[in-house]
Write a structure and sequence with these properties.
9% helix; globular; binds calcium ion; mainly beta; binds 2-acetamido-2-deoxy-beta-D-glucopyranose
Length: 221
């Protein structure tokens, strides 16, 4: 009975939302294991916006945001290719390449991505600058139980990690909405935004696996 109670407490602890204002996840080394698993109970998204901030010195390709469902491993994947300014955006296991988005090393970047199932168009915003709007996938929702992974790229549902695609650096201010934010909101995400209604950094449900640290953001004032 006591064991059962402990188990119940442990599982519910993992699911208690935490206010991460002024915090960041630090991914301090290259592994094929360390990651943050983020939880949402949403199961049917006909449109989506994801925004976050990240900092890295990786010159190689790396995953920034990996969302899988049982029916589509790359149901929403934001992936930086090695070439300067080049990203892959995957939705529903389809992908497009987006060129010319300035991505300096050792700088905090504000990255947002939108997609909607009606038009099938996706767009990436880096520091308030938009990519071209490109067709990825239309007509079906992101549906089924969602696993979101920060720090690794999923090749299977919740796993299949490759250290050559892992993220090393810091990630903060992760928000997700079930609609596309307006261009004005995306342009100014750097400065201000309303909290996400699918993922909210101020009430964030997550589990850390391996060497990932939840730290205060660094500032000198
Ligand atoms: C897609 O999601 C929307 C919003 O949740 C829902 O109203 C709609 O029925 C879904 N479409 C399909 C084909 O499941
Ligand atoms: C990772 O990259 C290194 C260097 O390019 C390569 O030798 C190795 O085979 C890669 N590992 C995997 C699992 O792809
Ligand atoms: C988004 O989620 C809200 C609940 O937070 C719901 O009321 C709304 O209908 C959803 N919108 C779409 C487009 O599915
Ligand atoms: Ca992979």
């Amino acid at each position: 009975m006591a064991l059962l109670l402990l188990l119940v407490m442990l599982t519910s602890c993992a699911a208690i939302p935490q206010d991460l204002s002024n915090k960041m996840f630090t991914f301090p080394e290259e592994t094929d294991t360390a990651h943050v698993r983020v939880t949402t109970s949403r199961q049917d998204l006909s449109a989506v916006t994801v925004c976050f901030r990240s900092f890295t010195d990786l010159k190689r390709e790396h995953s920034l945001f990996s969302l899988a469902t049982p029916s589509a491993i790359n149901d929403l994947l934001i992936y930086k290719k090695a070439e300067n300014g080049f990203f892959y955006l995957n939705v529903r296991d389809k992908w497009v390449g987006l060129e010319g988005l300035a991505y300096k090393l050792n700088t905090w970047h504000s990255i947002c991505s939108t997609w909607d199932a009606t038009s099938g168009l996706a767009q990436l915003w880096v520091d308030g600058m938009p990519s071209s709007r490109k067709f990825v996938s239309s007509g079906s929702n992101i549906s089924g139980p969602i696993i979101i992974v920060l720090g690794q790229e999923q090749d299977s549902y919740g796993g299949g990690f490759d250290k050559n695609q892992s993220f090393v650096g810091m990630i903060s201010d992760v928000h997700m909405w079930n609609y596309t934010l307006s261009p004005c909101e995306l342009k100014t995400y750097k400065i201000s935004f309303a909290p996400g209604n699918v993922l909210n950094w101020d009430a964030f449900e997550f589990q850390i696996v391996g060497r990932v640290l939840l730290e205060n953001k660094q500032s000198c004032d």
